[in-house]
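Chapter review: from sequence to fold.
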Amino acid sequence: MSKELNKYTVHILGNAFTLVTDEPESDVMEAAKLADSTLNAIVGDLTTFDLKNVAILGALQLANKCISLQKAAVQANQVHQGLIERIDQEITSQDEK
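The token string follows.
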């Protein structure tokens, strides 16, 4: 069974975009807010800018954040696996006594 599609309007760089997605509204709005704030930070106080370049720089910034989060998740998983192994070893040594 497929998820229900919903239509949302988001505002990025002062432009309205209509999205059709099965994602929750809160996730869509949070993503739009992040995209808008990232792009607005790039635009800053510029009076003229090339929207294509702003979009590319914004995509690069968001991709960099994504990669950093992926690396942090891998490191956290490694720590968790190490802790699980230590717990298993302790349980095994307790069982042997």
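Two observations follow directly from the output. The two ends are 52 Å apart (CA to CA). The longest strand covers residues 6-12.
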